[in-house]
Amino acid sequence: MAGAGAREVMRRIKSVRNTRKITRTMELVATSKLKRAMDRMQAARPYGDALGDLLRSLHAPGLAQEQPLLRQPRATKRAAVLLLTANRGFCGVFNANLIREARARLETLQAEGVDTELHIAGRKGLAFFRFRGSAIASATTGIGDAPTPEDAEQLVAPLRRGFEARDLDAVYMISSEFRSAMSTPPRTARILPVEPAPGARPVDAFIVSPRPGRLIGQILPRYLRMTVYGALVENAAGEQGARRAAMKSATDNAGEILETLTRTYNRARQGQITQEIAEIVGGAAALE
Amino acid sequence: MQLRVVTPEEVVFEGSARSLVAPAWDGWVGVLPGHAPFLTLMGEGPLTVEPESGSSREFRIGGGVMKVEANVVTVLADQVSPG
Fold this sequence. Notes:
- The structure holds 2 protein chains of 2 kinds.
- Helices cover 62% and strands 12% of the residues of chain A.
- By secondary structure, chain A is of the alpha/beta class.
- In chain A, α1 packs antiparallel against α6 and α5 packs across α6 (212-287).
- Helix content of chain B is 0%, strand content 72%.
- Chain B has a 5-stranded mixed β-barrel.
- In chain B, β1 (2-6) and β2 form a beta hairpin.
- Chain B is globular and about 25 Å long.
C-alpha cells in the first residue's frame, strides 16, 4: 500500500476517535442525569402511594354517578391518546418504541370504531406524527429533564375537561415503564375514567370533611395529575437510561472500529517501509 | 405521634410531633396525639408543627389533603413553601 493509503486510514482513525470522545461524554452526562431522574422518581413515590391509598379507601360503587371523572361510559365513542416522548434523540429505540405503541393503540381504537384524537408531549413524537401528516390535537414541547406537577397539570387539564364535558369517553396515556436503566418498554395506561385499584378499605371509621362524595371530587383531579406527573418523571428516567445504554454501545463500537483501523494503519505503514527497503536494495543491486 | 408532610415532588418533613395546627378547607384544625381517625381537605395557610424535640416549625401549605390515623398524620400538600 502506498503512503496515501496510510494517511487516509489515519484520517479515519482521528475521526472515529473524536466520535468516541463525544459519545463517551454523552454517556457520562446521561449517567448523571439518570441518577437525578431516578431520585425524582423515588421522591414522587410517597405522595403517589398515599394518595392512591386514600382514593381506594374513599372509593365506593355509588360515587360513579356523582363524580364525572369516575363515569364509566356505556360505549366509547371518542378517545384521546396522550403520548409522552422525549424532546431529544440519541437514545436508541426509546422514542421509536413509544411511537409504535401509540400507533398500535390508535389503530386498535379506530378498528373498534372509536374516534381518536392524539395529544403529544415531546419533540420526537411530534416530529414523527407531523411528518406523517396525522392530525394532532395538541402538542407540548416545553417539558425538560425535570418535569414538574404543573407540567402534568397543563397536559392533563384539557383532557380532564373534555372527559367531564363528555366529549371524551376514555383517555389513554402512553409512556415508558422504567424497569431498569437497561429496560424501558412502552406502556399504555387508561387514565380516564379513573378506576381505583380493588382492595378498597372503607373509611367508615373516619371523620371525613367535607363529606366523602365532595372530598373524593377534590382528590380525583389530584390523583389524575399525580398519575401523569409520575409518568413524566418515569419517562425522563427511562430516556436517560436508554441514552446511556445507546451511548455506551456507541462508545464500545467506536473502540472496536479504532482497533481494526489501527491494525490496518500499522499494516499499511509496515508495507510502506518494506517496499522502501526493497526499492533501496533493488536500487543498490542495480548499481553493482 | 408521627408526622409526614409530602408533596408530589418530595418528602418535606418526617418525624415525631407533639402537636400541630393545620389549615383545613373550613378553618383551623389542631391535632394532638390520640386524635380520632380523620380525613380532611386542606386550604391554604401555615402548618405549624411542635416537634418532639427542638423549636416549632412552620410550612406554608397550598392546599391538599390531611389524614390522621392511629397516631400517624400524613399531609399530602399540593405545594409547600418554607414558612
